[in-house]
Specification:
Length: about 350
């Protein structure tokens, strides 16, 4: 696309300055330098490119050169004036660009806050989204990556992840940002490959950090819903000790179902696992034994290996659990109740917290 023609007003007084410098050898005055800065700022606000503006100044210099060097002073004085004038013009231009970038970043940050927190009128939010490449009438999904430290957008980790995404999906409608120290990626729900790739890059860039992916949802409120699901998945992983590098909210729906009736779950944990408090060392070691036993598919040898116990020591622990609770972990009739109670204990942070 051709660069729009640069109006003469952005070079106002430039040729006259060169002529005077050739005649007197003077340097540009403070007012003249400030005028060049103002013209540079106005040119930036008008959307012109600095390269084209500098080229236009050089063309004007060549056009004025015969007159500019006809005075008593040498070309060195004129070239010095060109240097001063173009430098002041570029300074004003760059100041305006930095201010524009800051304004754009502030608008972007405000939009992201409104989007992820569900603030602002939803219709207005959808209008603003088009400016950032999102069509909120369609389904979107959100992935959140948590690393060992908090990140901001200027840090190396977010920049490297963004560069990888842009290199692979440059034409896709993707929004990458940071929020509360975590990396956040918003992508169309019809493009799960984007979030899978984000998860891979974020996991590597954050030295093994965990990534959670919410389900796709439609509309402006859909982004908030998916974001909340991803955050809930990260919190659930911490409470349940889930160490999978990538967590999908769709695979974890059973957990909120189990805790939907919190009081009923608390009653189950107290009645089924409460007697474990009577064991030497409290309930936690035996609760941990049950948790690993179920994770290992109720295979004693594998459970013993994971707990660094002998099979005999593991058998003793399982028998002790049976004695205290009246439920046998090896009995299929008792196993479901015990396992549900163990999941509930982790979700409710028992026995660390009283129920």
């Amino acid at each position: 696309m051709a660069e729009p023609e640069i109006p003469e007003r952005f070079l106002e007084g430039y040729a006259h300055i060169l002529t005077e410098v050739a005649e007197t050898g003077r340097r540009l005055t403070r007012d003249e330098l400030e005028a060049r800065r103002t013209l540079g700022r106005e040119a930036a606000e008008a959307g012109h490119q600095l390269r084209a503006l500098v080229h236009r100044h050089l063309s004007e210099t060549r056009a004025a050169w015969p007159r500019a060097t006809s005075g008593a002073f040498t070309a060195d004085a004129v070239l010095g004036a060109v240097d001063q004038a173009v430098d002041a013009f570029a300074e004003g231009f760059e100041r305006a660009q930095r201010l524009t970038v800051r304004r754009e970043e502030a608008a972007r940050r405000e939009f992201i806050d409104d989007l992820l927190y569900g603030r602002s009128d939803l219709g207005r939010l959808a209008e603003r989204a088009t400016r950032f490449g999102l069509r909120l009438s369609r389904a979107h999904a959100v992935a959140v990556a948590a690393g060992p430290e908090a990140y901001t957008e200027s840090d190396a980790v977010p920049r490297s992840v963004e560069a990888a995404l842009l290199a692979r999906f440059g034409g896709r409608k993707i929004l990458l940002t940071t929020k509360d120290g975590r990396l956040v990626c918003i992508a169309p729900g019809s493009q799960p490959d984007v979030l899978r790739y984000f998860a891979k890059q974020a996991h590597a860039a954050t030295d093994g950090g965990q990534v959670a992916v919410g389900r796709p949802h439609r509309g402006p409120g859909g982004v908030v819903h998916s974001y909340d699901e991803a955050l809930d998945a990260l919190e659930l992983a911490q409470r349940m000790g889930l160490d999978d590098p990538v967590l999908y909210a769709a695979d974890l729906l059973v957990y909120p179902v189990l805790t939907r009736d919190r009081q009923a779950m608390a009653d189950l944990v107290r009645s089924e696992l409460g007697p474990l408090r009577e064991a030497r060392g409290g309930a936690e070691p035996l609760l941990r034994t049950l948790s690993v036993y179920f994770e290992a598919g109720c295979v004693a040898a594998e459970t013993a290996r994971r707990l660094s116990l002998s099979v005999r020591a593991l058998t003793y622990r399982l028998e002790r659990i049976h004695q205290l609770t009246g439920s046998d972990p090896a009995d299929p009739m008792h196993r479901y109740t015990l396992q549900t109670a163990v999941i509930g204990a982790r979700l409710l942070d028992w026995p660390a917290k009283e129920l």
